[in-house]
Amino acid sequence: MSETILELQNIRKKFQETEVLRGISLKADAGEFITLLGSSGCGKTTTLRIISGLETADSGRVILEGKDVTGEVPEKRSVNTVFQNYALFPHMNVGANIGYGLKIRKRKKAEIRQAVHDALELVQLPGFENRMPAEMSGGQRQRVAIARAIVNEPKVLLLDEPLGALDLQLRRQMQIELKRLQKQLGITFIYITHDQEEALNMSDRIAVMKNGVFQQIGTPSEIYDRPKNSYVASFVGSANILRGQALRKDGELWIRYAGGVAPVTALRAVPKDGESVTAAVRSEYIEFVEEDGEGIPARVKEKSFAAGMLRIALETENGDEIIASRHGIDFSLAPGDRTVFSFSREHAVTVEDRDEE
Amino acid sequence: MRRKPVFSTLYLILGLLLMYLPIVIVMIYSVNESKISSVWDGFSLRWYEELFRDRAFGGALVNSLILGVLSSAAAAVIGTLGAIGTARSSFFGKGVMAYIATLPMLTPEIILGMIFLAFFSLISLPFGMTTLVISHTAFCIPYVFMQVRARLSGMDPAYEEAARDLGAGRLRAFFDITLPLILPGIVSGMLLSFAMSMDDVVISVFVTGVDVNTLPVLIYTQLKTGVTPKVNALCTLMFAATLLLVLLSALLGRIGNTKKSAKGSTK
Amino acid sequence: MRNRKNPMKLREHTANTVMLAPMYLFTIVFLIGPFVYMLVLSFLSRAETWGVVNEFTLRNYRRIFEPVYLSTFWESVKLAFLVTGLVILTGYPFGYFMAKLAPRKRGIVLMLVIIPFWTSSLMRLYGWIVIFRANGLLDKFLMDLHLIREPLKLLYTYPAVVVGMIYALVPFMILSVYSSVEKMDWTLVEAARDLGAGPVKAFLTVTLRCTMPGLMTGVILTFVPSMALFFIADILGGNKIALIGNVIQDQLMKVHDWPFAAALSVVLMLMTTLMIFLYRKITGSRDMEGIV
Q1: CB–CB of A169/A200 below 8 Å?
Q2: Which domain covers residue A37, as residue numbers?
Q3: Structure pTM?
């Protein structure tokens, strides 16, 4: 599992005056599922296009199977892409679409027919060879796009928001199927999405991207539980960000924030007393304590109900908004009421308050 | 709401009838024995016989066909390459170029005739087939250019990228993906060019030589001077040829489709 | 650090240049060149008998202001406007109704429109001669119905020229309107109806606006030729109706005053360019009003 199949070394890319990629590096192992997670415009699609060769990096190197392919044209790379809108050739039927890559490699007709047949079985569309892309549903086209890529047995499969155009239910189903396919084939997947839930569900590792830089690369649990900075914490799992001062009390670390005090865990360097510190706490870990208990005072701003959770917006004394969430709809406080909230030490972690540059 | 289609259907039928009225009249009189067009003297193929004996018509027909084929083919090559090049290049003058390329469509034909006449005598190019082909190619290019450009602008660049990603070189991707997708545009632009060339009077009148006559020029002269019913016969034959051409292009399109699915079913 | 970006871009650039070269060359030599020569020619003098003398003069342009030529220009513009207006009125509904047919019928009607469009325009003109001729088909038909007593003798009259032009140009309008109506998003019309617009209002505010590009193309393809379709005026109008096109043709082929013909062409060219420009401006501003 530790053989490096793909390596990006300090890739930079500029379009006109805007720097889209500002020196990104990444190593992907054979059979690994890596997700590039970020909002639109963060540079994730450009990264993918540089790996596939459809775009050339201004500087830096792309190494595939130990070979430098930085200046290589796309057709010479053992990498295939599942395009965002599938890009199925509209004038070819499904069979011809899937067999295209093999035809280019001058495989025998019978061999191609067999491979196309097998690939269609694999994506659960057996017998669809003669359909035209226009005659199929979005989900089916998605499967054909995947089949067209994997039939060439690439070392790395690049997927550019492949599930973006599908509805929620189909997306969930396809997540499971893609994961199964990846396990079965043992191909390295580089997967792009802006959906943090999708990333957490499927990936071996996630690379959170912002402004052309990887903010943090790690396993889903590392990213979720030990976010490196406030951006990662708020983008993945939408954590509350508390900016306050460190307070050392009885050898333990606390945060002084908005007229209150709450316990925090130092993930990395332990801050000195009085130093400014930033903590991330997820909404489900916000607890309400007695009015005179230890915690951070706030006022209930509004209550709303979404996706089986009660969402409570609180306003602290310094004007920040803190989101708390609860299962069920029973919550005694009403908008306008004063309250005090806190959280247990293990659920609040310190993060850096600046993006990676 | 239900009454509306009645009106629109009537309108369409009436319009089509009016469109075909002059054509049908010419066809009917082409088999009229009488020399005077408003008198019906019974069925006869006399005018067709006379037409076939007339060498001037034969020569003009051959000239028009050669001219149509050469200029529409030249326009197809130049216009298609130009449209692809314009779509891809980031050259600063491409907007100007696109405008200039369509200029012949926005210029009254008589001006085109005038400038070609003046220019060809300036560079002392002898008037004849060469000058005809050059000027016809010039006014045919926009038809191909615009058709192909419309096709290209509606095409997702990801198709060609996907082909490259699957291992096709630049040239291979062009021939496998881009060309088949813009082919209908090229063909329809070319057929339109051919029809335009076969129909052109104004420009041809100016740039044709003394010894080269095209069919439309010949008919025009006849209509102006004195008409023999041979023109009826000729026009009928030309109409039949057009009909054949339109049906052929429709059929070609259909064959193209069935061929594709047939190719698939052998997989 | 290796960087092979430039060679790749260069290859692509070279390929583009090679593809563009034929069109650039052809256009510059055989289109721009002649246009420039026409401009030069219009400032030169005419030789005593035949040909051109390289002597600068403004006489050609001054001559255009002679009443004969001014009135010809005026007549041409009037006719072009009349024809374009009538082509819109007849062609737009046709294209619109055609696009709303069921796909199968639509294909057939489209084919039926294209066939005469591709047929020699002279043949179709000739049919009209037979119809319009004194004591021709139209006269006989109307007299048989006792609608008229005397033959109308429409051939070689203004209405005959107008009909001939409409007939020759209406397919351009039909086809361009058709293609933009076919592309229309009909939910927009439904939305307008849903918001309380009547069918007429919905048509004016949504359909007409959405099909404006097609209508505009049709107008340009009608208006520009109708300024100068000299052979229709020639054949259906006899020598009675002289359009600017006829004057240019006479100057070129009969009088052999090329510089003057060039000057007339330059003015005609300027006029059509101006019309196109104005039309775009006008429709553009109307669009803005629609949004407000």
Answers
A1: no
A2: 4-232
A3: 0.78
